[in-house]
Structure prediction request, 231 residues.
Amino acid sequence: MSNTGRKKKLASFNCDQRKWEQFIACCNSKGTTATATLLEFIELYLDDSQDKLDAIDGNNLDKRLDSKIKASVDKYLVKSNNNYSSSTSETIRAICERLDKLESEFSNESNSNQTTVIDNLANLEQKIEKMTARMTQLAEAIIKIQDYLNNQQKRGQKSYYNNSSYPGQSPRMQPLTEEGLAKRLGVSEETVRKERINLPPPLFVAWCKNKDRAGLGWEFNQNTGFYQPAS
Prediction:
């Protein structure tokens, strides 16, 4: 140890570099410095052992001072580690609680989203069912309108033929084959067959009426296999 009081270097001792750096950090965290802490320790030591220090040579004093300083450093490190462990435990506990909360919120949100999707699907199915029912009603209404128009046409034809000046002429058309009807309507046999299969009977009659040069509607007789004027 140097006895020159005016020099900045007051003493020299051996200490593990890592422990010394940790000791400096601990002192700084408490609002002081390693040098101030060591000076305070030296003053206390001198006050308690002034008589004994006078009888000890410089080398022994350096060794004892090294020992005391190391013990003080270790004490500060143990206390700091305990405080750090406690703080770390609290931090970890807070993080775990936060993670649990986030997981719970995510789970609740997922369940809510799943419920919303199911509700939307149910509403969509109900809308589709309503639309299908409405389309069925419209189709039935169209068929009824077509039947009404056909009946009105038949009444007009009967009135015309009853008042005709040619009582001997028959207004009745002869049944036609599929080929004959196709020629009369100006379409192919395949077209006649496809429309007959795809359209309901009233709509097929209306389709034929629209194609027929005399405006007659035609219907298919399942028993004879011929097409005859709609009655």
